[in-house]
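[recover] target loaded
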């Protein structure tokens, strides 16, 4: 087909404009990948004898938008239409000497390669052969294995929170996240991605909305979701062998939003839940509490139609709001009694009913028995009451932050003596709009915006004095997608995308603005966040927010993508490229932490261990009380942290080529190759560091022996800016074979290779990822940190002042003598590989049902773990043979070498080789915190020679960032 020079020039200008738009989207945005969701129709044109007919004019019309495409059958009688929007189509075939063939009402699904063969009948062109078709549900030209839900099905199925991604759980092989936080039980968009397909990890499936990705770079949360009533079609692709798809090894979910049509259509709705229809909860019944208030009104409406009918310019717009007042429950909590707050423990008992004896830690002294055994002991407080002169004013103010007991306790030790209810509220407002313009047969464009004006959660307070654990959540986000499709000729299609997504997530303790450290008698300048410190008291409720204090996570995704399709006889050649950028800016201000346990007020003089030594009972539950320790100002540790505000980014470039070879009218082979390069993360101001375990630390000279291990900073001394080493040779071959056994039965087989994400939770856990640019001042609450005699009481926890960030000025000496919460090890960082293969048969039973039987296999290799958190404190197996000798005291080999007063290795006292005395509270539970072994063997890394304070793996999983206090 010849194209006049003027039209060809105009087409080239359109193509260049499309490319410029895509590049512009890259420059203004920050993002991840995107792929098209378009479909295709192809077929063979024959006459009544079965002979192919060449040169037939084929016209394809979108019956809703009146968008028109034309083509001619080739030498083999074949025609092909690619890059089609899902919708209802009509095919018209005309050729001299034959009746006009017209097949209408063909419902084409997303990402489906359908076959529609045309049989022409001899006759006059004024005569017509009219065929009324049904849905084209069977993909006859690819090995992709998918399930498609149309608008009718989406509107018919029950959906508790009206998030359209809930329907993935209707598909076999879909699993929930381990954290259990899903969009089925929560109204936040971010939980829509917390599922796994084909046995894959949760929150790692590719989610495309009108071809644009919508998952965050860190834990994979869904940034923006369209409303359920804005979705025309949803497709869950369990096996995807098209080379244009980035990632996708764990499945692809595609949402296609509604577009306007030539006729006006609209609706309004109100989805309601009310406590009047609910029974009381088991917990409320057990605690003799009334049924709480719960009202959910999820209401909205949408309208679509023509803006300019003759120009084929259409719109669709929707709004949805949610108002959900509710009653929140504290659950059963343990709080101190009034007598205990005053220092009177004469009626405080152990679980076995015996008196919980409180010992004076300031009376700790050493004695020698008749056998010459030396041990430590303490004196109990007379009457089990702490003298008023010993009560620390700050400790008592902390104790008074607890609510008063308001219910009978369970057991003699005042367990679960508090229960309360309060009013909470959730408020959402969302908008979707889309504009489609079929400018001509050669040019089509659409733009869609989804705006999350607010997704807010205000939980109830129970103490209401600034010490409550809950946190507010304030979310909003927006996604803009622009698609431009240019068809210069019947054999060329140029499809370009630009997408930009932003998700702002804020979490603040509900104590923000209510109280800060001044309420307990401390200077607010001690802590980064203007909040009360987090207080962990063994066996009592945690004061302050354990999940978030003052956090702001701002995530950006944007992409530019160009796909080019060329028809060559019985080949459809497709190639393209994408450039993606993902960014996240974090603010995680810390309020500081104080820990109290029963160790400093415990001692059992009747113990038969150590010749009567009570030190053998330190930290056990046979005596002592965390509130007693608190009143004395004697803690078990804590810290004041200064966290930086990182600005991280990851860039990805990808390109592919693919050929769909229609070897016969029934056999199609799809072969493609994709190249992906996920560049290592960078930080805007080069504040990244990684740990080199092989480098000789400068401390070696002063120590007199070789010590390995040091931090090295990205972008310093000629190093790259990267957080890890690049992996540049990632090629992903993909192959699919489809055989059309009958018009409704297809057999398919396919295999492909995909790549997983290179990072998870990037930019979180600041002390580990950014050593030197954060600072932690430890509360050395006992003399030389040995855990026996209190010092630096809570009223003056940091007498040496606060440690300040030093940046990279200390180089290899950064954090020597201290520890890091997370270590990024220097070395290879391969991108995870996912292999996928499948075989299946699919049969279209009716216009709305398909029967399928098949087999799918998935295998992952070199998958990311630990983000990449390499815990180097694990003791080598060769030292396990020392057995109980690991518990022996040895001289501190670093005394006089490490002089940092904030370091636990600066003291002169001997250190037990396998000490595990310290405890750390995590998620409100006291868990053992094993300090690093100090061994007689000195030829180990500095980190292995250090007694590290780490934060319980910091974030066990992404749910720690976004966990909510309840499920509706």
């Amino acid at each position: 087909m010849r194209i006049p020079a003027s039209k060809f020039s105009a087409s080239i200008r359109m193509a260049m404009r499309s490319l410029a738009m895509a590049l512009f989207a890259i420059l203004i945005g920050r993002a991840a990948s995107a792929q098209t969701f378009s479909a295709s129709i192809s077929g063979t044109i024959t006459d009544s004898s079965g002979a192919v007919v060449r040169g037939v004019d084929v016209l394809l019309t979108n019956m809703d938008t009146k968008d028109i495409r034309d083509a001619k059958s080739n030498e083999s009688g074949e025609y092909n239409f690619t890059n089609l929007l899902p919708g209802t189509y009509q095919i018209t075939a005309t050729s001299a000497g034959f009746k006009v063939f017209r097949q209408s009402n063909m419902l084409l699904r997303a990402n489906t390669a359908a076959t529609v063969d045309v049989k022409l009948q001899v006759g006059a062109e004024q005569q017509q052969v009219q065929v009324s078709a049904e849905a084209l549900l069977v993909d006859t030209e690819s090995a992709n294995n998918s399930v498609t839900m149309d608008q009718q099905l989406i509107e018919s199925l029950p959906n508790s929170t009206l998030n359209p991604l809930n329907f993935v759980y209707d598909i076999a092989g879909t699993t929930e996240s381990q954290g259990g936080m899903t969009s089925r039980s929560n109204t936040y968009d971010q939980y829509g991605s917390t599922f796994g397909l084909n046995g894959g990890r949760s929150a790692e499936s590719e989610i495309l909305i009108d071809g644009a990705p919508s998952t965050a770079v860190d834990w994979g949360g869904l940034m923006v979701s369209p409303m359920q009533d804005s979705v025309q079609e949803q497709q869950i692709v369990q096996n995807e062998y098209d080379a244009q798809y980035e990632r996708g090894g764990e499945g692809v979910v595609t949402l296609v939003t509604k577009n306007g049509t030539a006729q006006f259509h609209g609706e309004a709705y109100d989805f309601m839940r009310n406590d009047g229809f609910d029974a009381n909860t088991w917990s409320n019944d057990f605690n003799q509490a009334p049924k709480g208030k719960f009202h959910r009104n999820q209401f909205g409406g949408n309208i679509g139609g023509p803006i300019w009918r003759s120009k084929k310019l259409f719109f669709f717009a929707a709004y949805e709001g949610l108002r959900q007042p509710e009653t929140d429950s504290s659950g059963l909590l343990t709080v101190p009694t009034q007598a205990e707050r005053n220092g009177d423990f004469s009626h405080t008992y152990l679980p076995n009913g015996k008196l919980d004896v409180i010992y004076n830690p300031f009376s700790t002294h050493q004695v020698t028995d008749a056998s010459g055994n030396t041990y430590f002991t303490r004196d109990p407080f007379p009457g089990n009451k702490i003298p008023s002169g010993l009560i620390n004013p700050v400790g008592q103010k902390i104790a008074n932050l607890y609510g008063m007991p308001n219910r009978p306790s369970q057991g003699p030790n005042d367990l679960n003596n508090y229960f309360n209810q309060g009013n909470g509220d959730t408020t959402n407002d969302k908008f979707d709009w889309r504009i489609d313009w079929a400018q001509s047969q050669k040019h089509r464009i659409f733009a869609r915006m989804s705006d999350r004006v607010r997704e807010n959660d205000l939980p109830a307070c129970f103490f209401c004095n600034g010490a409550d654990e809950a946190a507010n959540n304030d979310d909003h986000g927006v996604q803009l997608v622009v698609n431009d499709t240019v068809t210069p000729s019947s054999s060329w299609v140029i499809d370009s995308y630009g997408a930009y997504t932003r998700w702002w997530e804020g979490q603040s303790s509900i104590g923000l603005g209510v109280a800060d450290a001044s309420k307990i008698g401390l200077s607010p300048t001690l802590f980064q966040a203007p909040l009360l410190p987090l207080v962990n008291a063994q066996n009592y409720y945690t004061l302050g927010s354990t999940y978030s204090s003052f956090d702001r996570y701002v995530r950006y995704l944007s992409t530019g993508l160009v796909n080019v399709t060329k028809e060559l006889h019985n080949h459809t050649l497709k190639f393209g490229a994408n450039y993606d950028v993902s960014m996240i800016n974090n603010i995680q201000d810390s309020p500081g932490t104080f820990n109290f346990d029963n160790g400093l007020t415990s001692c059992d003089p009747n113990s038969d261990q150590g010749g009567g030594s009570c030190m053998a009972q330190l930290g056990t539950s046979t005596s002592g009380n965390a509130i007693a320790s608190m009143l004395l100002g004697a803690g078990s540790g804590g810290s004041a942290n200064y966290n930086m505000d990182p600005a991280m980014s990851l860039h990805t470039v990808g390109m592919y080529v693919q050929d769909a070879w229609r070897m016969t009218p029934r056999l199609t082979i799809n072969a493609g190759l994709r190249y992906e390069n996920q560049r290592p993360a960078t930080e805007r101001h080069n504040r990244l560091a990684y740990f080199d375990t092989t480098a000789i630390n400068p401390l070696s000279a002063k120590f007199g022996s070789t010590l390995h291990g040091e931090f090295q900073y990205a972008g310093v001394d000629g190093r790259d800016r990267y957080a890890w080493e690049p992996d540049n040779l990632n090629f992903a071959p993909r192959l699919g074979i489809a055989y059309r056994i009958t018009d409704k039965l297809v057999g398919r087989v396919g295999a492909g290779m995909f790549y997983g994400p290179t990072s998870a939770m990037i930019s979180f856990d600041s002390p580990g990822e950014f050593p030197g640019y954060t600072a932690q001042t430890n509360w050395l609450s006992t003399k030389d940190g040995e855990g026996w005699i209190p010092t630096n009481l809570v009223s003056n926890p940091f007498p040496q002042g606060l440690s300040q960030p030093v940046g990279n000025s200390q180089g290899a000496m950064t954090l020597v003598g201290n520890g890091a919460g997370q270590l990024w090890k220097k070395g290879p960082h391969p991108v995870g590989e996912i292999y996928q293969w499948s075989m299946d048969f699919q049969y279209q039973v009716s216009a709305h049902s398909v029967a399928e039987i098949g087999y799918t296999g998935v295998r992952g290799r070199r998958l990311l773990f630990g983000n990449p958190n390499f815990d180097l404190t694990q003791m080598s197996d060769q030292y396990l043979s020392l057995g109980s000798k690991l518990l022996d005291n040895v001289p501190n080999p670093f005394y006089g070498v490490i002089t940092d007063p904030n370091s636990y290795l600066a003291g002169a006292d001997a250190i037990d080789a396998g000490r595990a005395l310290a405890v750390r509270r995590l998620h409100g539970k006291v868990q053992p915190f094993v300090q690093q072994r100090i061994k007689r063997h000195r030829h180990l890394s500095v980190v292995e020679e250090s007694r590290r304070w780490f934060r319980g793996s910091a974030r066990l999983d992404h749910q720690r960032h976004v966990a909510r206090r309840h499920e509706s």
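[recover] notes: The chain is about 5% helix and 40% strand.
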